[in-house]
Amino acid sequence: MANRAYLRVWTRDFSETTMIAEFARFLTSAPLAESRQYFNELIVQAIDPSETPAAEWDVHDGTYGAAEIAALAVQHLNSDTAYIVHAKWDLWTFDVDTVKWKRGPQPLILACHGLDYDNGVAATEGHFSADLGFEHLFTGHAGILAPGAASNPFDSSDHPIEKTFRSWMSVENNRKEYAAKTRENIQHLMNWVEAVSQALPVERSELWSEGEENFEARLDAILALR
Known about the structure:
The protein has helices at residues 19-29, 66-73, 122-125, 136-139, 160-169, 172-199, 215-223; strands at residues 4-11, 41-46, 55-58, 81-95, 100-113, 128-134, 202-209. The protein is of the alpha+beta class and 226 residues long. It contains seven helices and seven strands; from the N terminus they run βαββαββαβαααβα. It has one domain. Helices cover 33% and strands 27% of the residues. α1 runs antiparallel to α2 (66-73) and α1 runs antiparallel to α6. A seven-stranded antiparallel sheet has the order 3-2-4-5-6-1-7. A hairpin with an 8-residue loop joins β2 (41-46) and β3.
């Protein structure tokens, strides 16, 4: 299964009193897809992920922005509750089968974790977090970009798709395009991180992935490629 990447944010004044208002500001900062400038779903999860959700709203009708989501969430205000919002944002994706690029909506999951939710998971997962999607959208496939910074360098598998990909990447202009599109995704993410710091009293933030020992260092290395 492909690894996923995350943004985690902690604020200086986070509490039961402030969290929904700050969540609304976090949602407002999110760079939603041009074709889907609204949120799709809100899940209110009490106690921990094993529990049946306390409430769910399917809001695909396109009328729910950050304020409307906050108005729903505040109906279930508790420190042992998480609020999970599904949306879309625009990223470049590379289809290894067709070796073609496309920029369009990709899943984005945004969450607010009450301080007592899931035994205090906010301490490690962030008061606010975002599931950004697959790690390779920002690092490239299998460590082929900035391999010195990768924990899983590109191998020499004989799988037909990988052979096609290696052949395509052996062309300098293709490799430059691959790096350029990946850097655009990274810059889109970094611009959002900056927007979050403007919207909230951020104590610290962290970019993390399941497959990289130091995800942020890997992103910096790819941004430096020319």
